């Protein structure tokens, strides 16, 4: 009787294991595909940043879909939204450029005096390959975690804006109003900069300077770590920088253009937004700083701008995967 009970128990146990194995094969068959979401922070490096300004970090988030091609290569697609921004006042004592006055005297201009700022939404769609350095099996039974490197191609949309501050009845050394009274209606508003041609783009004198496109491509590059929690769920953390092919994420790249050229083409608002120095008071004179002359550097053309993400990912298998193996 005792042997009969043992035999029946063994048959039941083996049946349960077989049933569980069949369920696992049904759930996870073939190469796995995961879907989930990502959440983290976004930032920027360019003409308006001496380095990464932590106070300019913004929330980013989006959707992610992964396909584990093999243990060492994972393919994925991202759809994410973030925001980038910068303000000269973050590094106000740093020298921005050397300014030549009307008497040809060189003067060092600080970022605080230049006084430019911007913000821009970033919407990105990307295709990325992950190289799993240790190999990665999407189960907890063997190699459930790995650091990885990634690279890919992205299409993103941006639109730099700057907040305008109307200087009510403020006059310069000549007695002229710093801002035309027609600009009062824009006080406190975030103004789109690309359409204003702040560096003379497509004006009669600078027709060779074309307006930058607001939809462009970038190259995502980065490093990360991921771990399988169970047969379904995985999490990760990664840092990625986007190599762009534009110097205009911040609307700043070349040099100053005369008010008559920019303003003549796009109005008083364009002239006011291209040079924000007169919104700052010179402590030595008590008057607004003088506006810069044509040809003085506004930014640097030495390299392109960058945007970056530091983010967490959580994904769940939606189909496919390695067969679960049971140990006896």
**Lateral arrangement of strands in the main beta sheet:** 1-2-3-6-7-10-11-12
Poorly predicted residue ranges: 1-28, 323-328
Structural class: mainly beta
Number of discrete domains: 2
Helical residues, percent: 10-25%
Percent strand? 35-45%
Q: Count the strands?
A: 12
**How many DSSP helices?**
4
Rg, rounded, reads 29 Å
Molecular shape: elongated
- Arithmetic mean of pLDDT: 87
**What kind of sheet is the major sheet?**
8 strands, antiparallel, barrel
Distance between the termini: 25 Å
Order of helices and strands: HEEEEEHEEEEEEHHE
CATH architecture of the largest domain: Beta Barrel
At CATH level 3, the topology of the largest domain is Porin
CATH C-level label of the largest domain: Mainly Beta
Structural notes for this entry:
- The chain contains 4 helices and 12 strands.
- It is mainly beta and 328 residues long.
- The strands form 3 sheets. Strands 1-2-3-6-7-10-11-12 form an 8-stranded antiparallel β-barrel.
- Helix 3 (259-266) packs across helix 4 (268-274).
- It is elongated, with a radius of gyration of 29 Å.
- 33% of the residues are buried.
List the helices and strands and how they pair.
Blueprint: H1 2-27, E1 33-45, E2 58-68, E3 73-87, E4 95-100, E5 106-110, H2 111-114, E6 117-132, E7 145-157, E8 161-163, E9 190-192, E10 215-228, E11 233-244, H3 259-266, H4 268-274, E12 306-319
Antiparallel strand pairs: 1-2, 1-12, 2-3, 3-6, 4-5, 6-7, 7-10, 8-9, 10-11, 11-12
Helix pairs in contact: 3-4
What features would you highlight for this structure?
mainly beta, Porin, 2 domains, 8-stranded antiparallel β-barrel, disordered N terminus, disordered C terminus
């Amino acid at each position: 009787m005792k042997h009969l009970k043992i035999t029946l128990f063994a048959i039941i146990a083996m049946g349960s294991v077989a049933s569980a194995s069949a369920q696992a094969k049904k759930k996870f068959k073939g190469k796995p595909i995961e879907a989930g979401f990502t959440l983290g922070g976004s930032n920027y490096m360019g003409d308006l940043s001496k380095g990464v300004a932590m106070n300019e970090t913004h929330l980013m988030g989006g959707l992610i879909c992964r396909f584990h091609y093999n243990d060492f290569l994972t393919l994925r697609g991202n759809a994410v939204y973030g925001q980038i921004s910068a303000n000269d006042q973050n590094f106000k004592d740093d020298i921005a450029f050397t300014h030549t006055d009307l008497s040809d005297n060189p003067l060092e201009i600080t970022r605080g005096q230049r006084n430019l700022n911007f913000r821009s939404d970033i919407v990105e769609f990307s295709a990325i390959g992950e190289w799993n350095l240790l190999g990665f099996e999407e189960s907890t039974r063997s190699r459930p975690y790995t650091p990885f490197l990634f690279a890919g191609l992205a299409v993103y949309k941006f639109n730099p804006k700057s907040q305008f501050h109307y200087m009510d009845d403020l006059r310069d050394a000549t007695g002229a109003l710093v801002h035309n009274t027609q600009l009062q209606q824009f006080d406190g508003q975030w103004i789109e900069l690309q359409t204003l041609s702040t560096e003379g783009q497509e004006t009669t004198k600078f027709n060779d300077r074309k307006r930058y496109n607001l939809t462009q491509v970038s190259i995502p590059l980065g490093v990360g770590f991921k771990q399988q929690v169970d047969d379904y769920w995985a999490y990760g953390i990664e840092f990625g920088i986007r190599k762009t092919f534009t110097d205009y994420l911040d609307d700043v790249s070349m040099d100053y253009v005369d008010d008559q050229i920019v303003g003549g083409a796009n109005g008083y608002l364009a002239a006011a937004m291209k040079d924000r120095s007169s919104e700052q008071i010179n402590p030595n004179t008590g008057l607004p700083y003088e506006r810069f002359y044509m040809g003085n550097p506004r930014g640097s053309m030495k390299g392109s701008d960058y945007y970056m993400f530091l983010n967490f990912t959580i994904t769940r298998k939606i189909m496919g995967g390695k067969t679960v193996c049971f140990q006896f």
